[in-house]
Amino acid sequence: MSSKRTIYNTTIEKIIDHTPTVRELLIKTSEPESFLFRAGQFAMLHVPQAGAEKPALRAYSIASDDRQKNGFRLLFKFVPNGVASQYVWSLKANQQIQFTGPFGRVFFAEPPAQQIVFLSTGTGLSQHLCYLTSKADLFPDLHYTLFFGVRNESDIFCENELIAFKNKFKNFNYHIVLSKPSPQWKGITGYVQHQLKNIDYKNTPTQFYLCGNGHMIKETKSILIERDGIAPTQVFSEAFD
């Protein structure tokens, strides 16, 4: 049966609130039990609507290892008055929810280039966690650099995972970029796309993965493709706002 028509009945194994506005759900599939996806794909959450015959559908990038066959993890950004946000923030552990999927064709290119650059904003980090969890140990000698952009210190999440990748893979580096930091912040400020100047991608075969804010993706493509002549086939993106 086509993934577009298969409805997966799942159970929430665990809920993790990383920040007041970022929630993670650990999902276990029950019927069908097997959920096969490729790194970079997304699942469509079915959001019940009072008085409506059909649920609202919302897409979320899968954040987990694509070798897992009976579940996945998702990260959600709270949107005030958002139908899906109201639903997700009302959920409890062991509750049953439904998905269709997987969808999407922004896969990790194989064989990969010598250098991989990830630009993530907000919960766009989900897709890049999926790539790293699924692929980094298969290609441990690549040079990985991830720029993760959020607004301020209180919006940072999943840094413990990025630290674990850095400890495990000698050629992995990450940088958190804050657009509106406090005066106490000593790290990088601004926007992730403006950090490309710190990467030598003109002399090193490089593939770029962009996920998150549509404006970031548009500007990044302008810099890479229009200004610097990087082949469009080396730039992979998934936009959402």
Throw out a few tags for this protein.
241 residues, Rossmann fold
Fraction of residues in helix: 10-25%
Main beta sheet strand tally, sense and closure: 6 strands, antiparallel
CATH topology of the largest domain, what is it called?
Rossmann fold
How large is the radius of gyration? 18 Å
Number of strands: 12
- Taken from the alpha-carbon principal axes, the silhouette is globular
Mean pLDDT: 95
Q: Low-confidence spans: pLDDT under 50, at least 5 residues?
A: none
* Beginning-to-end CA distance, first to last residue: 31 Å
Beta-strand percentage range: 35-45%
How many H/I helical runs? 4
By secondary-structure content and strand pairing, the structural class works out as alpha/beta
What is the CATH level 1 assignment of the largest domain?
A: Alpha Beta
Give the tally of structural domains. 2
